[in-house]
TrEMBL record:
<dbReference type="InterPro" id="IPR013766">
    <property type="entry name" value="Thioredoxin_domain"/>
</dbReference>
<dbReference type="InterPro" id="IPR050553">
    <property type="entry name" value="Thioredoxin_ResA/DsbE_sf"/>
</dbReference>
<dbReference type="InterPro" id="IPR017937">
    <property type="entry name" value="Thioredoxin_CS"/>
</dbReference>
<keyword id="KW-0676">Redox-active center</keyword>
<protein>
    <submittedName>
        <fullName>Redoxin</fullName>
    </submittedName>
</protein>
<keyword id="KW-0201">Cytochrome c-type biogenesis</keyword>
<dbReference type="InterPro" id="IPR036249">
    <property type="entry name" value="Thioredoxin-like_sf"/>
</dbReference>
<dbReference type="GO" id="GO:0015036">
    <property type="term" value="F:disulfide oxidoreductase activity"/>
</dbReference>
<keyword id="KW-0732">Signal</keyword>
<feature type="domain" description="Thioredoxin">
    <location>
        <begin position="26"/>
        <end position="170"/>
    </location>
</feature>
<dbReference type="GO" id="GO:0017004">
    <property type="term" value="P:cytochrome complex assembly"/>
</dbReference>
<dbReference type="InterPro" id="IPR013740">
    <property type="entry name" value="Redoxin"/>
</dbReference>
<dbReference type="Pfam" id="PF08534">
    <property type="entry name" value="Redoxin"/>
</dbReference>
<dbReference type="GO" id="GO:0030313">
    <property type="term" value="C:cell envelope"/>
</dbReference>
<feature type="signal peptide">
    <location>
        <begin position="1"/>
        <end position="20"/>
    </location>
</feature>
Amino acid sequence: MKNLKPPLIAWALSVGAAFATPQGFALHDTPQPVANVRYEKDDGSRGDMEDFRGKVILVNVWATWCVPCREEMPTLDALQAELGGDDFEVVALSIDRAGSQIVRRFYDEIGVTNLNMYVDQTMLSMTALRTVGLPTTILIDAQGRELGRLVGPAEWDDPEMVSFLRSFIE
């Protein structure tokens, strides 16, 4: 369990995690509350974070105009293809003010096929989720609590990252 602070080691063991934390991923000493962020879905309906209760989610706050966000999106799509299901979902939450049409165009351009589309045109989710930059990716447990986050891009389909995330799902 390298890279973990002592209080976090006890917590990680209590949830059955046996892993090395991927570089840049900061786990909290204890799970933190998460704001009930609202978004619009691809079909125009509205939803919020409560919709994911009972499922581990990886919320990626991003925008089509953010170059690092654009570059990591294929790896998030691949992660969803590998781990997505009843117990886990990658929630790519776009903060594009132009709305779902620009996000759909981007998904089509790069061939995203596994991610659902979630858009917050108000950008209020950035403040509610305490993001300090884009992309910011937040790991949330099935009880709706933040376990940790990574600020900046990552290779989400890297075997070390997949193993790390799988330990929270199982």
